[in-house]
Amino acid sequence: MESNKVYPHVENVTASEIAEAGGISSADAAVFHEKLQKILKECGGCRIRTWNLISTSLLRPDHAFALHQMMYYGCYGDWDASKNGPPPAWTPSLESAILTNVGRLLQRCGSDLLGSAYTNPIASFSRFYRLSVDNPEIYWNIIFRELNISFNVRPSRILDAMTSMEDNECSPGGVWLPGAMLNIAENCLVPNSKKKPNDVAIIWQDEGKDDLPLNVLTFEEVRAKVCHVANAIETLCLPKGSAVAIDMPMVATSVIIYLALVLAGYVVVSIAESFASQQIATRLKISNAKAIFTQDVIVRGDRALPLYTRVIEANSPIAIVVPGRDTSLCMPLRQGDISWEEFLGRTQFMDRVYEYTAAVQPVQAMSNILFSSGTTGEPKAIPWTHATPLKAAADAWVHMDIRSGDVVAFPTSLGWMMGPWLVYASLLNGASMALYNGSPIGRGFTKFVQDAKVTMLGIVPSLGRAWKRMNCVAGLDWSNIRCFGSTGEASSVDEHLWLMGRASYRPVIEYCGGTEIGGAFVTGSMLQPQSLSTFSTPAMGCSIFILGEDDLPLAEDEPGIGELALHPSIFGASTKLLNASHYNVYFKGMPQYNGKILRRHGDAFERTVGGYYRAHGRVDDTMNLGGIKVSSVEIERVCNGVDGRVMETAAIGIPPEGGGPEQLLIVIVLKDAENKETNFDDIKAAFNLALQKKLNPLFRVSFIAAVPSLPRTASNKIMRRVLRTQFSNLNRSSTRSAKL
């Protein structure tokens, strides 16, 4: 429970209080109160059933959020979380559970898979999870069948569980799908029982054209365009397996380019379109990219934000430049670069330009290079193989119940893992991908969700917070949403209570993993009760452990908090890094469990009474700002050179009061600590300007604190954990200067 306000128990709420909180008339409040009394009488004190009926049959999206809070907190006000765990905000019915992907499977095969222990999809969900961990051969064969995955050469087995660390140090969990050959992009495009040629693959809308009909591409149209681009890529004469970057917004054209590169046997280098030129250059250098696809400008409203010029400043290889507005470029090109029109025109004399034979790849061949910040300051280059997308699609099928005919929206970028995740989670499941070419913060996007009839809406919590503040969902019909997905940063109870209320209380499936995982290790399910801002289950096929103070895993059902560790056998997870030792980053120094060394993730997690999980931020010196992982070292490197009055800095993420994503605090040591005239606001503004220019325009310093000196280890390393503990307990309004 989160709210600090004291709400009356629902039994004691009066009609006048309902009218005041809900912003409704006295007559409507009287009707609401009468229906509430009937629910209370029917439920006889059962809090879970009471809230379930209130949320689904009484509360409406157009009721003021204060009324939603009054009902939720009034219902669960006397709930004892220490004995019962966090209260559920959504509870599945058996009727709805049977209609999910997993429910249908268990109705058909539950007894065969689980034996006499099988009863129904809800009661037997935990047993199905256990099967996914204990019997990967059975589980993953089921998934490949359900997803209609086509192997050119089938694997000799699902998992070769090697036990010798010396045999394969980078894969302590074993080798998945040995001997398998396929092309994952081809699997996205080839018709099967889940997707027909005329089914819609991509729905999109351009910002500013929100009242025009939506644009659609069928699977057949996408396949033809992908083949066209793949044929054009051949004219670049790049060696097969070369790395080719994409630095573009996630729109239909960039998705087609992405699929074409993978189809043709190249490796996509994912670069976020928000990056400054220095960060683009770093990623191009690490990946050794031979070409880059980009846009001349990014159009946002009446603004044209430069992108191609940043790519040039990064000293990129040959660039293929797509117009961001209309069909023509708005600037001249660097010598040797190619316009999108000229690039496609290179195929004009080819036969069968809309057909292409996929490059069949070993399943462990790289398909994508993504980046995630580490604690060294340089981003980790994490390869995705042709197997990693299968993990993404499987998570979507199992946990978010994505299926043929669904419409999936998730405002993201191909530069972050959720961009490629969205491509595979939707297309491999036969669903439509909904893309909005514009800012997701505003009425345009939220109306697009309505018009596209989105069934699964993914967000980072800060997006929902912005929608709530701007009131840009009011009057819209989000009734097609079957569930939300939330990832990228910590959420708060009230934020997700508000979000659920916009769609008549459809569940929020929390989703936590990493670029190196290809999906989640802990998440939720449509077959389990979902509590706000918590996770209800480890992801299928993943075993997770909470390490105690002795570095040994707590018992599986024991509540507690500590560093989270993963079993090394996770399908689709990374086995190498391009610019660091994979073993040293993820395994060195970790404890063993049943003869297997555990995999490091770096987050602190809590397992609650009732078996839910909560994230408690990073245990190392990487923080999460607005869904973007960044190391303290990267931020400090920028801030240390900003202001001559500052001798050194330490960057830490601290949780805000009331929960939510981390906020950035810069702890500074002044050269002249006795100067009482130091203007902290000026320093803060200078830090923000530098960080937004050199790292990411979304980064923002929330607080500045001055200390006489930074705490350090014997080897002179900054002890950021000490700072994090110190300042997490301070009153934020007074955080300007402090002494340790």
TrEMBL record:
Keywords (A to Z) from UniProt: Membrane, Transmembrane, Transmembrane helix
Taxonomic source organism: Araucaria cunninghamii (Hoop pine)
Cytoplasm in keyword set: no
Transmembrane parts of this sequence: 255-276
UniProt cross-references to PANTHER family, sorted A to Z: ACYL-ACTIVATING ENZYME 17, PEROXISOMAL-RELATED (PTHR44378)
Domain AMP-dependent synthetase/ligase intervals: 194-565
PROSITE patterns reported in the protein's UniProt record: AMP_BINDING (PS00455)
Keyword check for Transmembrane helix: yes
Highest taxon in the source lineage: Eukaryota
Protein name, as recorded: AMP-dependent synthetase/ligase domain-containing protein
